[in-house]
């Protein structure tokens, strides 16, 4: 029924034959609320509505035949372009390329690691999946079970440190001639200095081709700060938005893209290895705006 | 002043930002702003905070006594059910209760092992099935063991499931049937475990989970992050489900009973 709001709004817009500036003001108030209901960050929603106002009060639009249609289109188009209009590929140059998965606790990193493993395996890249979580009970076993289920090479955690775990896996990858290495790291808070420092250390030492921030689609307002912190301290090259098979609108995607510029490279759409989808900006814009 | 009460537009805007970024939603934020605008500037914090506390003070449904007392954790994937089950087990065990766990997540990779490791660390008894087994069967076995081993509390840790997946939600009904067969009062408590970073989707989760089990409380996890946990307000206020515990870290002691005044104060910081 949140979806109903935006379609109602567009319906209201479409019935008008002429939009005054005052109309645009009240419409944008509604648009802002719909974005907030979709978990778009307050500041991002505000800026977005300002951008729309500038475009919508243009002479051309207000006097056009169906200004409501034009404004509705401006909103979806603007959001689509903000979400990134080009298909974003994984950077896989490197011998072997290393992809590091990072993010908050429980966001879906280990599951996504297995999904990317199958994805790369199907591309003929023979990946090695490396368990680097020394803290969570049965974290290494979780990845190991997934690897045996999907026929993927597995490098167990080295309980002395995440760094040692990475080292072990790179040695193993060289020995077994793996075409890529996926690092599954422990969940951590963006404000945990020590744990963020661990990622910085891994990045500086092993220079991964990709650092993917794995984020739960139901993340609320704080997605902005989370993405900004990870990007400023560690640097991220892409985002994976998980649990998109639920009914969360996923406004976090817009906030994170706005603050980091990092593209959403994949969507998690379920718990199985095959539940990894491409990111379609237009489709996401429709989901966010309902 | 005047039609906008005693606050400047800028003050209203910054109050609005603070309230909305707490994840409480724009409707509740607007309600609180209207209150703020009718008050003297030095009374605003107090009046908003007391309004929030009022919304959070929901009488806990006093669960009937039973031996063993059965508590079940439910919720969407990755919110902290297994970790919270362990923490709750420790809390009750420290209070002298004889606790036993049911590792009813027979689905997720290493789901059973994760709780087994916790149980071993905490010195708490555990009944587990095997991966791929039937979770209702694990619950049945755990109930039997709880009785025969004379335990006071059985804590059932279930698999994560999205509320939008009907077949997974139906599994909860199956577990409920097994429990009710043993004792119509079971489960004494069903706690929905929610992540403090969740936004507006929290309401949808609570609504649908409450259609499949009678929720008696919320465990709000990862409150040690920067999210204010405002997503719980509409759930507590409209559905009358109280927040019972806060998860404030990844260790067994990072668990505290919910304090509405402290929570409301922290939100407004
Ligand atoms: N429905 C659904 N569930 C998912 C998805 N991705 C992950 N999960 C589930 O979310 C839960 C958490 O996933 P994990 O892979 O353990 O998350 P994590 O980020 O590795 O967790 P930590 O290592 O503890 O930080 C598990 O129950 C997964 O099966 C998804 O796209 N859809
Ligand atoms: N910082 C922090 N992390 C937490 C808290 N509670 C749980 N976690 C972490 O969140 C992650 C997921 O916890 P789990 O207990 O596996 O979550 P779950 O709900 O059982 O996950 P599924 O069974 O896969 O649905 C783990 O890395 C936990 O250590 C908390 O209060 N604070
Ligand atoms: Mg993990
Ligand atoms: Mg669990």
- What distance separates the N and C termini of chain A? 9 Å
Largest interface: A-B, 47 and 41 residues
| Main beta sheet strand tally, sense and closure of chain B | 8 strands, mixed
Helical stretch tally of chain B: 10
Spell out the blueprint of helices and strands.
The complex is a heterodimer of chains A (290) and B (269).
Chain A: H1 2-15, H2 21-37, H3 42-56, H4 59-62, H5 67-82, E1 98-102, H6 109-122, E2 127-131, H7 139-150, E3 153-155, H8 162-176, E4 180-184, H9 193-206, E5 210-216, H10 223-233, E6 238-242, H11 252-260, E7 264-268, E8 276-277, H12 281-289
Chain B: H1 9-20, H2 26-37, H3 44-56, E1 69-74, H4 81-94, E2 99-103, H5 111-122, E3 125-128, H6 135-148, E4 153-157, H7 166-182, E5 189-195, H8 201-212, E6 217-221, H9 233-239, E7 243-247, E8 255-257, H10 260-267
Parallel strand pairs in B: 1-4, 1-5, 2-3, 2-4, 5-6, 6-7
Antiparallel strand pairs in B: 7-8
The complex binds guanosine-5'-triphosphate (2 copies) and magnesium ion (2 copies).
Offer a few descriptive terms.
heterodimer; A: alpha/beta; 8-stranded mixed β-sheet; elongated; B: 269 residues; 8 strands; 45% helix; binds guanosine-5'-triphosphate; binds magnesium ion
């Amino acid at each position: 029924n949140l979806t109903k709001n935006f379609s109602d709004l567009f319906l209201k817009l479409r019935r008008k034959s002429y939009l005054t500036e005052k109309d645009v003001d009240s419409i944008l108030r509604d648009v802002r609320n719909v974005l907030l209901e979709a978990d778009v960050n307050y500041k991002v929603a505000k800026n977005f509505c300002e951008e729309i106002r500038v475009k919508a009060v243009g002479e051309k639009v207000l006097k056009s035949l169906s200004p409501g249609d034009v404004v509705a289109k401006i909103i979806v188009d603007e959001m689509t372009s903000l979400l990134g209009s080009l298909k974003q590929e994984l950077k896989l140059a490197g011998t072997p390329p290393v992809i590091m998965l990072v993010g908050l606790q429980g966001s879906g990193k280990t599951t996504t690691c297995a999904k990317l493993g199958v994805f790369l395996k199907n591309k003929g890249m023979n990946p090695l999946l490396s368990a680097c979580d020394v803290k969570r009970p049965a974290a290494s076993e979780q990845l190991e079970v997934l690897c045996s289920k999907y026929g993927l090479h597995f490098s167990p955690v080295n309980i002395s440190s995440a760094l040692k775990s990475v080292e072990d896996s790179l040695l193993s990858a060289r020995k077994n001639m793996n075409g890529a290495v996926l690092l599954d790291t422990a969940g951590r808070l963006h404000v945990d200095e020590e744990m963020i420092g661990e990622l910085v250390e891994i990045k500086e030492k092993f220079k991964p081709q990709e650092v993917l921030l794995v984020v739960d689609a139901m993340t609320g307002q704080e997605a902005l700060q989370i993405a900004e912190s990870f990007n400023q301290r560690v640097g991220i090259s892409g985002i994976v938005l998980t649990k998109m098979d639920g009914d969360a609108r996923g406004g976090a995607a817009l906030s994170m893209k706005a603050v980091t510029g990092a593209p959403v490279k994949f969507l998690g759409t379920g718990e199985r290895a095959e539940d990894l989808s491409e990111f379609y900006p237009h489709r996401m814009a429709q989901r966010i705006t309902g | 002043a005047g039609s906008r009460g005693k606050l400047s537009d800028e003050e209203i805007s910054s109050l609005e930002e603070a309230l909305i970024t707490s994840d409480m939603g724009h409707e509740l934020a607007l309600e609180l702003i209207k209150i703020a605008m009718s008050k003297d500037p030095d009374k605003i914090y107090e009046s908003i905070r007391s309004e929030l506390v009022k919304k959070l003070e929901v009488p806990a449904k006093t669960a009937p006594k039973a031996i063993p007392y059965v508590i079940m954790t439910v919720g969407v994937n990755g919110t902290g059910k297994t970790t919270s089950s362990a923490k709750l087990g420790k809390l009750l065990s420290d209070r002298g209760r004889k606790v036993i766990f049911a590792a009813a997540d027979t689905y997720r990779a290493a789901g059973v092992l994760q709780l087994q490791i916790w149980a071993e660390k905490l010195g708490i008894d555990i009944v587990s099935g095997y991966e791929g087994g039937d979770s209702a069967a694990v619950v049945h076995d755990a109930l039997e063991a709880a009785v025969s081993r004379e335990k006071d509390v059985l804590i059932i840790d279930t698999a994560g499931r999205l509320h939008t997946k009907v077949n997974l939600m139906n599994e909860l009904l199956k577990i409920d049937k097994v429990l009710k067969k043993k004792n119509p009062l079971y489960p004494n408590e069903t706690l929905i475990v929610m992540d403090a970073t969740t936004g507006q989707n929290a309401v949808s989760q609570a609504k649908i989970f409450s259609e499949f089990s009678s929720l008696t409380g919320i465990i709000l996890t990862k409150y040690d992050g920067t999210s204010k946990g405002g997503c719980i307000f509409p759930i507590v206020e409209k559905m009358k489900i109280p927040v019972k515990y806060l998860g404030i870290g990844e260790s067994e002691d990072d668990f505290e009973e919910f304090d509405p005044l402290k929570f409301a104060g922290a939100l407004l910081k």
